[in-house]
Amino acid sequence: MTRLREEDILDISDSLKEYDQKLVNQTGKSLAEIAAHAIGSSGKRIYELHRANPVGVVPITSGEGIINGFSRSVQKIIEFMGFTSFVTGLKDVGGLAEAVEKGAKVVFLADDDHFVAINMANGKVVDNGEATGKGYAAALDLMSGGLRDKEVLLIGAGPVGAGAAAFMSAHGAKIFVYDVNREQAENLLETVPGMQIVRDFYEALPQYKLILDATPAAEIIGKEYIGEDTMIAAPGIPLGLSQECLPLISDRLVHDALEIGVATMLFDVLT
Ligand code: PYL
Question: In angstroms, what is the span from residue 78 Cα to ligand 1's centroid?
């Protein structure tokens, strides 16, 4: 899992309203509506049922330690979704205890290997990777006007790619998957009926207008692959597009460091 840098999340808290509007312009739906679409539920219903339950975010010092702004960014995204949320004053075990004592129904916490949301009432655990994949696939479904019977190139068959594949398969997309680790792609085939493996990435790339880039590979897609109707959902950090692509695709590219993943985690763990 790529570890976010402070600069990746620096301005999340202050630009949520602007980002939400960008998502509405691109997909027709808000951040909350995309998250609800990702889990096939009604965001309004989840909000009405659970808005009274506080959500705790616990900073974790293990491994490479705290990322400045990470817990606050997570807390602000949850707050933007209309839920009461707080970052615990204590870290690690003390922080978890503090969250429980403060009545948190859901707790978010991340070390270098896992970022999870835990429903303290029923024990449900949602992983950021799978939720992010579902959230981005939902955004691509909305941005494209519906993935049913459309071909999508899925780059990356890890946890994010697997979450995306599950959503896209359930919504009738024809998925073609490439992973540099062929065995990982083959493993994913077992759980996603009908998906096909792409053998040569750069031979395949020009053939697809809909792309879900779920890899941490940077700048693997150059501007020669961006057509007027290319649409890309890119949960991968760093972004897989080269900088020269951005002016060509800006309004048809969905990409953020945490927002869609956290929003989908919240709705998923409460459902
Ligand atoms: C959740 C992000 C998405 C991409 N990579 C994942 C990552 O950066 N994981 C590390 C998160 C560490 C958080 C640190 C803290 O501040 O609590 N333990």
Answer: 16
